[in-house]
Amino acid sequence: MNVIGYDDALSSAIDIRLDETLNVRVASLPGLALLKLFAWADRGLENHKDALDLATMFRTYIDAGNTDRAYGEAFGLLEKVEYDLDLMGPRLLGHDVRHIAGSIALDRAVELLNDVRKSEMLAIHMTKELNHADDPLATAQSLITQFRLGLEDR
Q: Which of 28, 31, 127, 128 has the largest count of CB atoms under 10 Å?
């Protein structure tokens, strides 16, 4: 089992108060995205669940409390995706992963997504979650590209 990213996810975990006496630490969305990417790399051929989860995160990250950020502190990223909020989600998520990931995890994530064969396989695995799109494969490839650009801080 690959443990790259676990320390990064732990250090960026957030506290959730369940009641007056119980707090639980859970992975932040950027931490979870990092773990899902490496989990898919480890077991993606047998199980596409991690790719489907990544697709969901890419599509919904803006709606997870990041709309104000898109029009505020992260407006430069919104400009880079030509004001397309569907592309802003994965771009901002990649940007946020970049800020919680250590150098080893970040380098491995970028290396994984720059591998054309692996990136294409990830896109194929994501298409089931993106079947609402006119071209699910092209949509998946576009989301992955934006996530990678966010990781690379471009």
A: 31
> Which residue's entry shows tokens 């990213």?
5
- Model confidence over 46-100: pLDDT tens digits? 889 999 999 999 999 999 999 999 999 999 999 999 999 999 999 999 999 999 9
Rounded alpha-carbon distances, angstroms, from residue 31 to 10, 59, 64? 8, 16, 14
Read off the tokens for 95: 């940007």
In DSSP terms, which residues pair with 26 in a beta bridge? 14
Look up residue 7 and give its two tokens: 């320390």
Q: Which residue, chain included where needed, has tokens 């898919």?
A: 40
How far apart CA 94 and CA 134 sit, in angstroms, is: 24
What's the CA gap between 134 and 147, in Å, rounded?
20
Tell which residue, 100, 78, 70, 99, has the closest CA to residue 146: 78
Q: Does the pLDDT of residue 21 top 70, yes or no? A: yes
Nearest C-alpha neighbor of 29 from the set 64, 81, 1:
64
Calpha distance 26→123 (Å, rounded): 27
d(CA 123, CA 144): 7
